[in-house]
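HUMAN: Please help interpret these tokens:
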Amino acid sequence: MSYRDPPWIPVKDEATRKALDEIRRALMELARDLRFLDVTVALPNGTNVVVRPGLGRALLGYAIGAPSGAVSAGYVNEVARTMDTITFQANGYGATISLPIRFW
């Protein structure tokens, strides 16, 4: 067993060791390419707003934070989604809200 092998996976076969090395390299490359983008979007009440994060690749997902600037309780809908844009609509807030969004 070499220093590169985790202690819980003893690898004696050279072909298996090479396959694990390839998997490790691929995972490290994926982790390097996966990036997050944090933006704050102004959403007027009752209006569709198209957000284009500009990640340089297709969107994998997003998380919405707590809105600020609301005068009453409301909700945010995802109206439409394409490979690189998402359309949101805020309803019931009574004012334009600021919404933090994390894209990945």
Remarks:
- The chain has a mean pLDDT of 84.
- Residues 14-33 form the longest helix (20 residues).
